[in-house]
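<tokenise_the_fold>
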Amino acid sequence: MANPARGEAILEIGGVSHTLCLTLGALAEIEALFESGVRLDARNLVTVLAVLLRGGGSSLTEADLRAAPLDPLAAASAISTCFETAL
């Protein structure tokens, strides 16, 4: 169960529910990514997703996510939820 007060969201990946969490560390990683001039595209969406998953305690890597059966709309929605609920 996600805790919106903590900036959490749930995303199902390969039939398993994973928690995404916008921690201060995750936020710092994401800010560093975009400060370097990176634009948000599908590849970087996976990077952001991996960062938020680490914030939620997952050990999935970007490579794991690229190989996983991801629903792009569900992933984008979960990422959006993390940011919306943390505000």
Summary: The mean pLDDT is 91. Helices lie at 24-35, 42-55, 62-67, 72-86. The chain is about 55% helix and 15% strand.
